[in-house]
Backbone:
């Protein structure tokens, strides 16, 4: 087993077998991102408060109630023996690096990262809107609009893109290259998960992922009663026994808290009266059986065959290979049920809202020419969701491709550059418009308490929701922004003076980063957004950028916001930040002789 690094500390790993390579990836991940993956494991197991204290209890209660670790264990148990062995090898590598890790921990980490990434938090918000403003107002927040989101595009000889998420420090993605006699793959992986999931290049085929904006999580309103023999829930056919037990959450400092865990026939109770049903929990399958076949892929058909096993999140895939073929795929599981399930929590006792057998068929389309995915409503995604980004980003990317603009420059396209005073004035004006809407009498009922667990405040904050869908809310109220605030009354300096990078830091991480002024806004390709009326600072945007040269992988380039290491003492903790800020990419080095071998301790 051998470890090589490029000039930015990106690991290139070689081993004599697939499992030795998994072990090596785990060991290097423990070295590069040890503190990060320890926190991620604790999040999945509901043990974060044991490390961080009482402030983490909200998450731990949710993790226990949602049964994240239990789902990971059961999904691991259902995997094929080959995938289990691969995950065990990775876990052994992490443990050799001094980090507690179980064979199912990677599944738990992936699930914890994505369980609130999809649609159920929006249903909490929609129910609050429906209760306080009326059903008509829900449409304002479901409208296709200037949502932040990811981009991916295919043009002749190239796949490029940039996934958009919370910008975390250390970063959510690791750049990595994995080589053994069976494959040689470069790509981006979630810290704590083996292989390469969302963005990769095997030499013969490359792929890119954007969120399909699918609705695949449902909330059910549960009615419970306690009897001398246990707890019962009112189901479609009467009262049903439910599974109940109590767990103890340890808290740093010696305390603890008890949490009651209840699961009905629909799913785990994540709040006092709501159960969550997801394909992952219903099937005990996270789609991890796709990951090894994906590493072995050499054609677009191989990628498609591997991802037929995928579960969630539901993703849009662009993939192209060296034969010139390309495919558009939608992969994952979307349940068959009524449209209202996709808007708000529905009554558990009404059979009308129960899931039907099977899942909605996924999409596979052979491609020719330019294709752009930008979380927008398209024939390959429309059947799966109910709220999409506007067409603006997709149209702009296609326009730039038609003009011959290089992909690295497309990544940075925005009418809101950091140095522009006019952009600063526009942002300041929209900020004040949003502030006025916060005080608008017609929206005042939204400011009432939502009644859900405080953990969900980040997804149900009326001010953030109004700022995020500002134009749709204005249209719903029959107002124009100019009526609320005269643009001529606004003065501002350059946009970047206020639009500063503010990453979500790993708990306990105190290391600083340089002041980083940013351009961009929600509906531009450079989707470095803030929340009008709440903050001008930026905590969400592209968590990686990549340009895959399909025929010649060594011409590919990529970048992440910070660096390869999660250790603030490392020179590679944030050495990619200035490049990411200005839109530069680093080379994907494929020549082993151009890399520096590192002694494996």
Residues:
């Amino acid at each position: 087993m051998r470890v090589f690094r490029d000039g930015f500390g990106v690991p290139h790993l070689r081993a004599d077998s697939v499992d030795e390579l998994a072990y090596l990836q785990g060991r290097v991940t423990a070295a590069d991102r040890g503190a990060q993956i320890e926190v991620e494991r604790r999040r999945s197991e509901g043990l974060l408060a044991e490390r961080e204290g009482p402030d983490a209890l909200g998450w731990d209660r949710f993790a226990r109630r949602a049964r994240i670790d239990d789902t990971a264990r059961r999904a691991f148990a259902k995997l094929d023996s080959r995938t289990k062995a691969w995950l065990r090898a990775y876990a052994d590598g992490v443990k050799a690096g001094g980090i507690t890790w179980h064979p199912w921990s990677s599944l738990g980490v992936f699930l914890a990262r994505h369980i609130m990434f999809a649609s159920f938090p929006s249903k909490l918000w929609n129910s609050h809107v429906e209760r306080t403003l009326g059903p008509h107002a829900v449409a304002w927040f479901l409208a296709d609009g200037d949502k932040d989101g990811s981009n991916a595009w295919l043009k002749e000889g190239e796949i490029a893109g940039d996934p958009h998420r919370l910008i975390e420090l250390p970063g959510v993605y690791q750049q990595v290259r994995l080589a053994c006699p069976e494959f040689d793959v470069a790509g981006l992986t979630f810290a704590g998960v083996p292989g390469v999931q969302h963005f990769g290049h095997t030499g013969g085929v490359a792929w890119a992922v954007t969120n399909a904006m699918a609705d695949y999580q449902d909330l059910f309103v549960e009615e419970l009663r306690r009897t001398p023999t246990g707890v019962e829930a009112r189901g479609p056919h009467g009262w049903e026994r439910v599974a109940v037990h109590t767990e103890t959450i340890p808290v740093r400092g010696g305390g603890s808290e008890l949490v009651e865990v209840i699961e009905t026939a629909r799913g785990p109770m994540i709040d006092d009266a709501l159960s969550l049903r997801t394909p992952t929990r219903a099937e005990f399958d996270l789609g991890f059986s796709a990951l090894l076949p994906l590493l072995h892929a050499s054609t677009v058909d191989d990628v498609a065959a591997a991802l037929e096993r995928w579960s969630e999140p539901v993703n849009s895939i662009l993939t192209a290979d060296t034969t010139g073929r390309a495919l558009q795929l939608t992969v994952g599981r979307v349940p068959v049920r009524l449209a209202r399930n996709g808007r708000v929590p529905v009554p558990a006792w009404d059979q009308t809202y129960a899931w039907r057998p099977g899942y909605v068929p996924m999409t596979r389309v052979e491609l020719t020419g330019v294709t752009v995915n930008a979380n927008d409503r398209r024939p390959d995604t429309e059947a799966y969701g109910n709220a999409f980004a506007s067409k603006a980003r997709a149209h702009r990317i296609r326009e730039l491709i038609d003009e011959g603009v290089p992909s690295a420059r497309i990544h940075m396209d925005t009418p809101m550059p950091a140095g522009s005073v006019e952009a600063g004035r526009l942002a300041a004006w929209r900020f004040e418009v949003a502030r006025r809407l916060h005080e608008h009498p017609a929206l005042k009922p939204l400011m009432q308490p939502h009644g859900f667990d405080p953990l969900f405040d980040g997804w149900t904050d009326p001010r953030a929701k109004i700022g995020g869908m500002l134009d749709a809310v204005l249209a719903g109220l029959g107002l124009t922004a100019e009526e609320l605030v005269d643009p001529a009354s606004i003065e501002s300096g350059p946009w970047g003076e206020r639009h500063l990078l503010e990453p979500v830091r790993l708990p306990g991480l105190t290391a600083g980063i340089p002041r980083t002024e940013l351009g961009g806004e929600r509906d531009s390709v450079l989707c470095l957004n803030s929340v009008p009326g709440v903050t001008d600072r930026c905590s969400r945007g592209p968590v990686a950028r990549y340009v895959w040269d399909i025929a010649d992988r060594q011409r590919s380039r990529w970048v992440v916001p910070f660096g390869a290491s999660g250790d603030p003492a490392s020179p590679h903790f944030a050495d990619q930040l200035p490049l990411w800020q200005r839109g530069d990419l680093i080379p994907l080095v494929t020549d082993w002789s151009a890399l520096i071998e590192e002694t494996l301790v």
User: Anything to note?
Assistant: Residues 136 and 386 are 15 Å apart (CA to CA). The longest helix spans residues 18-45.
